[in-house]
User: Fold CENP-V/GFA domain-containing protein from Ruegeria pomeroyi.
Amino acid sequence: MIKGSCLCGDIRYTTEAAPQGASMCHCGQCRRQSGGVWSSAFVPEADLTITGPVSWFAASDTAKRGFCARCGSFLFWKANDEDTISFSLGSVDGPTGLRLTKHIFVAGKGDYYDIADDAPHKD
Assistant:
């Protein structure tokens, strides 16, 4: 089971599903919201139990981002046309047992760091 929460603990989530697609996103939106890269994995939305007052921000016409209005933690990413939801790997309580499968939107990465692992890159 994966359990996680925001920084203040107002929002908690759990899943017994096996997370898929562990990735690091380097897009401008993730950089602005997280202060750097955003690491996440996804599960079917029906398999993620969320408790607490998630605030949703429609970051584009195709997706929304879920965060805690109290502490500002960026916890979730959800495409409007998919039945999966991504959760922040940094918000997981304890080890995840996952390994990165890819880096995404690397064309938008900041110029202040290098990607130093061998995971595949996608623009």
Observations:
- The chain is about 5% helix and 40% strand.
- The radius of gyration is 14 Å.
- The first strand starts at residue 2 and ends at 5.
